[in-house]
Design brief:
The complex is a heterotetramer. Chain A is of the alpha/beta class. Chain A is built from 14 helices and six strands. Among the domains of chain B are: 44-95, no CATH class; 258-347, no CATH class. Chain B has helices spanning 11-33, 73-83, 99-108, 117-135, 142-176, 178-185, 204-214, 226-256, 270-297, 306-349, and strands spanning 42-56, 64-71, 88-97, 114-115. Chain B is extended, with a radius of gyration of 33 Å. The two termini of chain B are 57 Å apart. By secondary structure, chain C is mostly helical. In chain C, helix 2 packs across helix 3, helix 6 (151-166) packs across helix 7 and helix 6 (151-166) packs across helix 8. Chain C starts with a helix and ends in a 12-residue tail after the last helix. The relative contact order of chain C is 0.06. Helix content of chain D is 47%, strand content 16%. In chain D, strand 8 (247-250), helix 6 (259-278) and strand 9 (282-286) form a beta-alpha-beta unit. In chain D, helix 4 runs antiparallel to helix 12 (404-437) and helix 6 (259-278) packs parallel to helix 7 (289-305). Chain D is elongated. The two termini of chain D are 19 Å apart. The chains are: A alpha/beta, B alpha+beta, C mainly alpha, D alpha/beta.
Amino acid sequence: MIKLLENLDRRWIFLAMALCVSVPILVIGLTGVTFPETPTPLAEAFFAEVDRAGEAKGRRANVLIALDYDPASAGELSPMSASLVNQCSQRGHRMYFISLWPVGPQMIDDSIEKVIKRYYPHLVYGEDYVNLGFKAGNEQVIKVMGIDLTTEFRTDVEGTTLSKIPMMEGITSLEDFDLIAEISAGYPGSKEWVLYAATQYDIPLVSGMTGVQAPQNYPYYPTQLKGLLGAIKGAAEYEFIVNEYIRRSRLEELLVASGLDPAVAGPLADEPAQIPAWTTSAAAASMTPEAKADLIDAATGATPGEFLEGQRRMGPQLFAHLLMVLLIILGNVIFFAQRRRGGSA
Amino acid sequence: MSSSASEPMTSAQRAIWAIVCLAIVLIVVARSFVGHGMGRVYVEPKPMDFVAEVTTSPENASETSSSWKQLSTVEFDAYVSANGYEDTISWVEYDEVPPRAYFAQEAAGGGSIILSWPRTIGLWLAAFFTLAIFSFLYRDNPFYKFAESVVVGVSAGYWMVVGFWDTIVPNLLQRLAPAFSKDYLTPGMELPPGGFDTTNLVFLIPLVLGFMLIGRLLPKCGWLSLWPLAFIVGTMAGLRMVGYIESDILSQTKETVIPLYVQGENTSSTFMMIWSTIWASLAQVLLVIGVLACLVYFFFSVEHKGAVGKTARVGIWYLMITFGAAFGFTVMGRIALLAARVEFLFDDWMWLIDPMQQREFVTASVGLLF
Amino acid sequence: MQILTRSIPLFITTVAGIVMILSAFFPYTSDWGKFAGQFFNILAAFAFVLGGGNLLKLHLKKISDQRPGWAYSGVVLVCFIVTLFVGLMKIGAYPNPTYPSVHFGGETQGSGSMFWWFYEYAFKPLTSTMFAMLAFYVASAAFRAFRAKNFEAILLLGTAFIVLLGRTFAGVLATGWIPPDSAFSGLRLENLSVYVMQVFNTAGTRAIMIGIALGIASTSMKILLGIDRSFLGSGD
Amino acid sequence: MRTSTIQTTLLATALCASAGVQVVLGSSTTSWLAPPESPTNLVANDLPWDGGGTVQIDWTASATPEDQLKGYEILAHELSVTPREETIETDEQADQAAAEQTESVLEGEGIAPEDARRQAELSTGSFAPAPADPSEWTSLGIVPATQTDYQATGLDKAGVYVFKIRAIGLEGEFSAPTAASGEIRPVAAFFNGRKLPLLVTLMLIASAVFAFIVLARRGMPMRIRKIAGLAAVDEAVGRATEMGRSILYINGIQDMDDLQTVAGVTVLGHVAKTAAEYDAKIEVPTARSLVMTAARESVQSSYFSAGRPDAYNPDLIYYVTDEQFGFVAYVSGMMTREKPAACFYMGSFFAESLILAETGNSVGAIQIAGTANPSQLPFFVAACDYTLIGEEFFAASAYLSGQPDQLGSLKGQDVGKILVGIVIIIGVTLATLQAITGSDSLEAAVNYLVNVILGS
């Protein structure tokens, strides 16, 4: 066995890597089934912070969403922004999009197209979400926004003056936001938002970032950064939480709509798997067949591809990483076996 | 370890071949059950029609400036039927659209979206190149050699073109021949007041040096290229010397001037406070020790013996940990690159998977969210 | 000849270098560095002609000598010349809507132009696939090189191991049981890898950077003093 | 006291700012609060020792408590030169300040000739008056109420400016602005004094290197430690000769503007010389045509000095393509076909490092790498037989040449390292004592060290 491994043709390793990456992509792509994520505290904190935004003031939360990245890092980050917008839309937050990166507006449009226009068509531009576009000046923009937002942003991306945009009423500075959610791929990004927004004014800040950046930003959690998503792993975890949340709240809506007592609907919605069985039970006797169909679909239907990107990408990642670990172990097994036999290493 | 074309096939190679072929067969089989067609690119034509528009300035009727006005197709046809194709410019731009849109159009019966042959061929070519490069992992082969030659040729040409349009034109021609550049190359540029900015004459230096550089191509003139070379190395040596001392030596030293004692944040209990203080202070101590130890490692004057040797050894430990960590963190990104290429093959080319719903118009899931 | 090929170049090097160093300290000359940068870019662009000429010479020679694989040289030449031509001529590039009458006004790489086609369907897939090959080499390197030969090697592979594991849920499971706010939370893999990054990685990188800066400083000195001049062909 | 800086270069931003102010004014009419007290003692000074275009502004905080202020707005106005008779007298304070200003400028900085002319013009004070209405002034931005100083940057070196400050209440209502500051011209200093520490450091290191080079020439023995990678160079070349295979030398993928490439060319010279002596074939594909030019010169002279000019073949040193991965594709293909016995990677490398090293390893070549790109060192360390880490790589040429003056330069580098070490130890000691005792004098000392000596 060892003998065989010692002169192992490295093309076997290549083959293994190829399979570790392509098979998961293929399987996940065909079946749409992804790995269960076990969310880390960082991702859960991120979700919770977005969820609780504005509760204190007992009104719709104003969430400032800063997408500071470019297509190059979209692979890692766009799943984050998609799920973020998804959660905010479902939760009924008001979304204010800005970007400190020149190509950021493109990313903003993507998430608006991909999520809001497609899955939340009832949301109205100017009332539920607004795109303030790109502003040059890096951290200076943040500094000035902290005092007077209108100094930097006078119109939205289409050139409409802010005073004409309903949801801008009462928004004069960063302090008027209940949460800053920021997705960044470098400078200016998380660090600048932490230093000039979160630290200066007492506004909760959550941030998603590329793997390269994450190490430098960990120290800010949980004091200045209330939540942190690192690389595709963080994206996948957050995605997972959000999708669960969406499914649950949809079910609850439907159940309540079908005249069920919220007190009952809540616990029921926690168990999507039980729904099909439940619809046949006596409790659901009053429901119309269509309502039941919707309910079952909502409970068991697949999540759209947009909201599984991160978890899909995790498939190959996971296997590849395990392969690497395995290879390192294997290499050392061989090494020590040789040493015992006094063979040259 | 590797094999050249001459070697006979080993059993290992046969086995690898078998597995690869099997995999390909499986994919093709899967392919035949999924989707409709593969590797097609659809585009939507967008006619661009312009007519010359002569405007006379209000002050003085003799002053006329002509500009181009874009017309809608209808307006343009009307204009043409009236004045013919005199001073008009038209072309058609093609915007890529997801196949979904084309299928929808077909279902609805007819529309402007068409199959783009150039892009479709391109897509298949791209897929071929991707596979050709990967084939190198197995062994060197004609496909790889072909791909290799293509990438060398294309990229050499590519960078030459970019060098001309992005460097020579804006940095040299626009400065030394503004009028010419505006008329023929970069109409969008602003002419300097008086048509020419004399301070730009300094750019004659790189012009002359540049031609001296090319002199190398002529026999007997090789030495000419040494002057620009000397100029480049000299200026850059000076610049880098100052730059590195300022940005690396000073700033890195500055970063390292830190207190070895810091209060911990966690104040939930006295124990935790003391504990986190120790933890945080330890980090600072280790950091400073590390920097100094590594500096000792780089020390050239003294042999790594005795105390110096021990310290240097600690330095090596730090370096090794640094390298290990960097390696681990880099792996993630590299895997993502490979995943992206594989997704290109399976999604864009084979239409085998459709994670982003580029081709199905309605997904089963939409029921979940509206 | 000696003067033209040796003395003058050395003189140029020294003078140019010293001027650059001094200019950094006087506000009125502080932007000379920028000029030098632009000059270099222009020279580098001229150098492409040199490179292209060399490329042609090399491959034409291969073809005329009928060396093994000369057909591939043919491929190189064809690809090179075609790309160059369609790029410089902006074949098929859409004109700039504001100035439709100026042919060269259009975007060089605007989608739809032939140059764009070459970029999109040859340049991009080829280079990014080459880049993607790294995933395979990383694996084979890990298998071959990460062996616990000595303490240093153990540190290297140990760290890589921790970081890699920390990125899979296997790692999270391994240390997930440690309560996040306990005294030993620092041992949780995610915290551990952060600690490694902050302390050891920072220290190592910092020392390396300082060392490099010193190396560069003395190399520049040697160049300006004319001690190190092998790039001018007057090596020791 | 923190000092913030806000770019005022963009006129657009300025316009936004003033317009933004209008919006706020509109909303402020609804406020019931009385306008806050205005700040006092506004003093503006041209920042000395700078490249011009920066003005330092200080003021005393408004009587209104910080928590009732949104911040201070800095207003600027660029005065336009006009014939004397049109000028209307500005208030004494401004005149006085202007006079002081002229003084301070003339003393503070070694004024360049053109500035002297400007100063003359400045002292005549022949300017159109600044508009009374603050909204006609340009807002440079708003700073938090905690702040009582500000640096206006990006001003026109030739322009003349006056400044005002006004406080903004929580509801966006403005205090009365302060009286206009003196007329400031943000001139450039002749010598940038803030770079003095940098100059000193540069001098120290340069003179250390220089001194040892001179000493070495005087015949002072230079003893330096061995570096494994360099001892292996001859071995590698010898091996290639025995096996009758070629030597592959990659000089990084950067151009001659990167000193790593220059160092690589120097090392190439030595390797080529050894190769010439052993009569081994050395092949050098380059990713930049300038590097090709330099490499040819270097190798040719090596063959000459090895006494085998006839063996030099320029066609073995050739340009491939500037494209990183195009180059890699070619080189790795070439490696598998020609199977070089020894591979040298000396220069600036990026992602391709591992591709090259792994391919080289697969053809069983002995590999020696040297680079100063920290991000790539792990891969070379993992996949090559010997790796020159960072500074070692720059030391390589000196080692290989074995010339005393070259070795001297290494001693110079060591002096640099000692300097850095001493500064760090002193600084850390001070900082630690300060953290424990919390003494202000120590804090001042640390700040001086960090911000003045090291923070240029």
